[in-house]
Amino acid sequence: MTVKDDRRWNHNIHYHPRILRVIPDGARRALDVGCGEGMLARELRRAVPHVTGIDLDAPSIDQARERPDDVDYVLGDFLTHPFEPASFDVVASVATLHHVDAATGLARMRDLLRPGGVLAVVGLARSVMPGDLPRDLAGVVVGTLHRAVKGHWEHPSPTVWPPPVTYPQMRALAAEILPGSRYRRHLLLRYSIIWRRPRD
Sheet containing 182-186: which strands, arranged edge to edge? Predict the structure, then answer.
């Protein structure tokens, strides 16, 4: 049985609003990198006329294509798919960067953005112990409370654990590859990166 989007919750879905809030005015084309079965792509489509979702997992793309949502779903690798450079106003990605080389992935997403476009990433990274233990424990407690109230939807896409890159390493990569980006570490074991490509 398919669960309606508005009844789903997990740590990734919790941070979708951070992405949706930074869609630039007048955005015409959006790309969801690692779209899975398409939940974020469907949310993007409510604000952006042309949305493409790309993922390497065929069963997830098959599920996405079952929805009548007017999103173009592509089975493929965003690192090598022949997208035109600087062709999207929004590039979004949730829980995808730890599946690829993070530096390569960030650079590819950057290069797909038009001037003035926004890159919005929510990702997972590896904690550095013992310093991160208090934050991680707090995140587990808060996540447990959320699940008790909202339930927990398990996405069908493949998982990678542990993430190969630490939180400090991700922050440094964002600063290097996306100068001026806003990096934030979140309580529910996630980080976000928001970056607007400068206009030429």
Answer: 72-75, 50-55, 29-33, 88-94, 113-123, 190-196, 182-186
On whether residue 149 sits in a domain, the answer given is no
Burial of 137 (0-12, 13-18, 19+ CB in 10 A): exposed
- For residue 74, the surrounding DSSP H or E stretch is strand 72-75
Token duo for residue 103: 């530096």
Kindly indicate the confidence band of residue 102, based on its pLDDT and cuts at 50, 70 and 90: very high
Q: How many domains does the chain have?
A: 1
Within 10 angstroms of residue 51's Cβ, the number of other Cβ atoms is 28
Stated as kind and residue range, the H or E segment containing 147 is helix 133-150
In terms of C-beta density within 10 A (0-12 exposed, 13-18 middle, 19 or more buried), how is residue 135 classed?
middle
Task: Using a cut of 0.70, tell me whether the model's pTM lies above it.
Answer: yes
CATH number of the domain to which 63 belongs: 3.40.50.150
Per-residue pLDDT band for 65 (boundaries 50, 70, 90) equals very high
Give the length of the chain.
200
Non-local (6+) Cβ contacts of 58 within 8 A are 75
User: Per-residue confidence at 131, pLDDT binned at 50, 70, 90?
Assistant: confident
Q: Are 90 and 71 in contact (CB under 8 A)?
A: no
Separation of alpha carbons 142 and 9, rounded Å: 13
